[in-house]
């Protein structure tokens, strides 16, 4: 208690002058900075990706360690969230415990409307390299294939969930000859964080932006219109 009393600031008061009408000091006024008030809730525009955090080694018996891990499984998984009404610079990793179950259930079945995949295939048909990398939303990938990792596609039917035209996998000329995609085709999604620098209130500030890409590895083969 003595230590706490010594840390308090004291106001020197001349008690003799106080008896002759000097005003007594009550409290020193000071300006308290106001904290920014955040909204009560944020709306999620879409879930970009998710990852499992590395488990830290705990110095405890194996049985207790297993019990701790079982209880902490939900908090070990985090999701990259794009917030509604905020720019892509404000995306953040959030524990699954911060997201409701309805939102988590839509992780593999988001609403999508995208045709970037078809453009990438046409790019492959016109190119010489067997690998094509495009910007591609990862929630679209999960919607189409129901998986987060690389995937091997065996036929045209595996793309039925994408809004593609009937001729998306081949390119013909006026004589009816051309090229088509040769199956199997491997697709691999990837998320990496890119550093960008912006001017924020007259100062240079570094932010990270999620970049979603899709790598496609496939061969092409000669075809005619009657072979399709």
From TrEMBL:
<dbReference type="InterPro" id="IPR000953">
    <property type="entry name" value="Chromo/chromo_shadow_dom"/>
</dbReference>
<dbReference type="InterPro" id="IPR016197">
    <property type="entry name" value="Chromo-like_dom_sf"/>
</dbReference>
<dbReference type="InterPro" id="IPR023780">
    <property type="entry name" value="Chromo_domain"/>
</dbReference>
<feature type="domain" description="Chromo">
    <location>
        <begin position="42"/>
        <end position="99"/>
    </location>
</feature>
<protein>
    <recommendedName>
        <fullName>Chromo domain-containing protein</fullName>
    </recommendedName>
</protein>
<dbReference type="Pfam" id="PF00385">
    <property type="entry name" value="Chromo"/>
</dbReference>
